[in-house]
Amino acid sequence: MKKNLKMVIILTFLLFLYSSICAISYAQNISSDIANSVFRLHVIANSDSKEDQDLKYIVRDNLLSYMNSICKDCKSKQEAISIVEENKNKFEEIATNTIKENGYSYSVKINIGNFEFPTKNYGDISLPAGYYDALRVEIGEAKGQNWWCVMFPPLCFVDISSGIVPDESKDVMKDNLTEEEFALVSDSSNHKVQFKFKLLEFFTNTGLITAKK
Fold first, then answer.
1. CB 77 within 8 A of CB 40
2. Cystine design at 152: which of 80, 116, 177, 179 (Cβ 3.0–4.6 Å)?
3. 116 strand-pairing partners
4. pLDDT tier at 131 (50, 70, 90 boundaries)?
5. For residues 26 and 196, what is the distance between their CA atoms, to the nearest angstrom?
């Protein structure tokens, strides 16, 4: 009897171990694929004062306006990154001039790299927490609240009042993700999809996966 119980315990443990490995592997692959299809924007204000936060949004708007003008026809993340890298100095110039025009003398630091992001919702699209390639803009001491968006596909231009991502942006995202991955970030009404999204968040938040480059 004890021998059978021991065997059941061992088999249960092995099944749990196997299921955990499969779940972690699934979450790792999904997280990597989503991160590899997205290029984000991260703007950090000088401080949390109202003035500095207002300035952050003005800088953001001007950068997005420029980004939209040079990347509106991009078909891939790498194409968007290449264009931004080629025009990195222009982004810095726009941010610096915007700050000066609004009566401030803060410095601007711009980097293109791989950074950690929390789970964020963009209209009816949700991106799980993880490490994503992004254009990071640090204003002054960069000790204020952050502002995040997605430069590719262009989710920065979501109509916040309607909470709906334009079909054009969804089409670009569909072209860069598998059917299951797109369902994961866009279908919040499906309980099975919700469970998988929560699973992905759990493994990311516990540090079991990072998808960091």
1. no
2. 80
3. 131
4. confident
5. 9
77 near 68, Cβ under 8 Å?
no
Tokens of 207: 């540090």
Whether 46 contacts 55, CB under 8 Å? yes
Q: Where are the beta strands (DSSP E) in the chain?
A: 39-44, 108-117, 120-122, 125-127, 130-139, 146-152
**Cα 66 versus chain centre, distance:** 20
The answer to whether residue 39 scores a pLDDT higher than 50 is yes
112 in Cβ contact with 18 (< 8 Å): no
Give the integer Cα–Cα distance in Å for 72 and 182.
Answer: 21
Instruction: Read off the tokens for 183.
Output: 């369902």
Q: Which two tokens stand for residue 30?
A: 């999904």
What per-residue confidence (pLDDT) applies to 161?
Answer: 45
